[in-house]
Amino acid sequence: MKIGNVKFDLSYYTNEDFYSDGDIELEILEMVKNDFNIDGIIKSDNRWPVLYHLSPARRNLLESFEFPAKSSVLEIGAGCGGITSVLCDKFDSVTSIELSKRRAEILAHRNKNRENLEVIVGNLNDIELDKKFDFVTLIGVLEYAGKYTEGREPYKDFLLATRELLNENGQLIIAIENKFGLKYWAGFREDHLGTYFTGLEGYDEKLGLCTFSKKELGDLVSSAGFEVQKFYYPMPDYKFPTKIFSDDYKLFMHELDTRFRNFDADRVKLFDEMSVLKNIAQNDKFDFFANSFLVFAKKEG
User: Fold this and answer.
1) Residue 226 class from Cβ within 10 Å (0-12 exposed, 13-18 middle, 19+ buried)?
2) What is the pLDDT at residue 254?
3) What is the residue extent of each domain of the chain?
4) What is the pTM of this model?
5) Homologous superfamily of the 2-298 domain (CATH)
6) Where are the alpha helices (DSSP H) in 24-69?
């Protein structure tokens, strides 16, 4: 079937949505179906899911990157389409996979005029794809692999599966929180569980959910055969980045005035984050304490 110009594939849908923000997604679906003024909605509606799913600031994560002409991309865990539009702008062909039918419908309606987009509803592990891609994105997805991938090493196995979906010179793009992010030391709740200091103290493996330090993430990605890695550091985080630093961040010390924000929960303010962050950067530890990582990884140089 089609939604506007978008191919919409329900062949792998099991009639069960495993991940949802609840009935507010029905409201969001009606908003995008009826072409409501998104900027106006965001200004007048202070609910977190509305901001998170609809804010155009989500595009900032990949807006400044250039990609080869005629490239294809597979977007895994596309959600409500927070970055799908920027992918459609930058790639010749976009395939978006999303577990939730409702979220996939929101994504498709938001991009209904796109002719280069296909949306597939279902679990990646169940979907048979007849082509490989130049890029695969995991934006806020890898941390959930423990819930949706079976096996003793679900995170590695999930990355191995994505590796098989790439062309020979293809690249994997990962965005994820840093479990040692400065915001967590400063009194912000863990993004996924809403608890204090969970990542710092260590996740319970039974949760099937975790984020990683830079070393852990780098080692994990390498173990799946992605030996070449380039780390970036979206600030204040990958969800609503206003600036993106690389390992040459010392060149941009004067730009580190990027205030941390918390839209979905209360917090405890333990210290002034910016003063501490600048002190950390001056001592060459910025990459360890950055709130989020954006990683471009490929099989070999």
Assistant:
1) buried
2) 61
3) 2-298
4) 0.94
5) Vaccinia Virus protein VP39 (3.40.50.150)
6) 24-33, 38-44, 48-54, 60-63
